[in-house]
Amino acid sequence: MSAREFKLIFTGPMGAGKTTAIRAVSEIEAVATEVANTDRDTCDKESTTVALDYGEITLTGGSRLRLYGTPGQVRFEYMWKILSRGAVGVVILIDGSRPDPAADLELFAGRFAHLLGEARIVVGVGRGDSGNGALAPLYEAAGRLGLSFPIVSADVRRREDVLTLLEILFTQIEVAGLDEVAHGSGG
After folding, report:
1. Does 145 map to a domain?
2. Beta bridge partners of 151
3. Domain count, the chain
4. Which of 31, 32, 27 minimizes the C-alpha distance to 47?
5. What is the C-alpha radius of gyration for the chain, rounded to an integer number of angstroms?
6. 76-102: b or e for each residue (b if 16 or more CB lie within 10 Å)?
């Protein structure tokens, strides 16, 4: 079997950890298009992604994962559409400490649901209480959209947690037979 390339998307609201997750697992120095954050009322962080993040992972056998992170602000939704073309998987990152994580999930899962014919989704939830049914409102949010996908707690600063999200995603891709789809440059 020849080496192939697979395109994966990391998405979610600003500050959910997309840039951090890609940096945690990328074998190359991750490309980031970060600028000073002018929307501190929404998310109090120094900088924010305005175009994309990019990293790569080489799999056993030489296949390559191309990792693309989207900007988190809805005003950059046009980039979500551009970046998602040809993706076989989407990692939605949710900040569990935000006021309404379920609404965040509904927004991003709804915007990327069009990919479900050719891609799979996994949700990683960080910074919140993951015990005692804390993930239940997120499963309910997915259900309101008529969607079903794994939702797990993850600390995107930890390489192992991000790799676990990718393993869950690739298990879904393999079960669906989507791993037979070879993608060119990932773009």
Report:
1. yes
2. 123
3. 1
4. 32
5. 15
6. beebbeebbebbbbbbbbbbbebeebb
CB 144 within 8 A of CB 106: yes
Instruction: Give residue 59's domain range.
Output: 5-180
Distance between CA atoms of residues 65 and 56, nearest Å: 6
Name the one residue in this structure whose structure tokens are 């080489």: 58
Question: Are the beta carbons of 90 and 121 closer than 8 angstroms?
Answer: yes
Pairing status of strand 87-95 against strand 5-11: parallel
Supply the pLDDT for residue 182.
38
- Rounded to 10 deg, the angle between the 101-112 and 77-84 helix axes is 50
Q: Please state whether the predicted TM-score (pTM) of the whole model is above 0.70.
A: yes
User: What residues contact residue 166 under an 8 Å CB cut-off, 6+ apart?
Assistant: 8, 25, 57, 65, 91
Q: Which residues are paired to 89 by β-bridges?
A: 8, 120
Contact criterion met (CB below 8 Å) for 122 and 168:
yes
Please write the tens of the pLDDT for every residue from 6-16: 999 999 998 89
Q: Are the beta carbons of 6 and 66 closer than 8 angstroms?
A: yes
pLDDT in tens, 81-101: 999 999 999 999 999 988 899
Whether 185 is covered by a domain: the verdict is: no
Which residue stretches of the chain are H helix? 18-25, 77-84, 101-112, 136-144, 159-176
The answer to the question of residue 40 being in a domain is yes
- For 174, phi then psi, to 5°, come to -65, -45
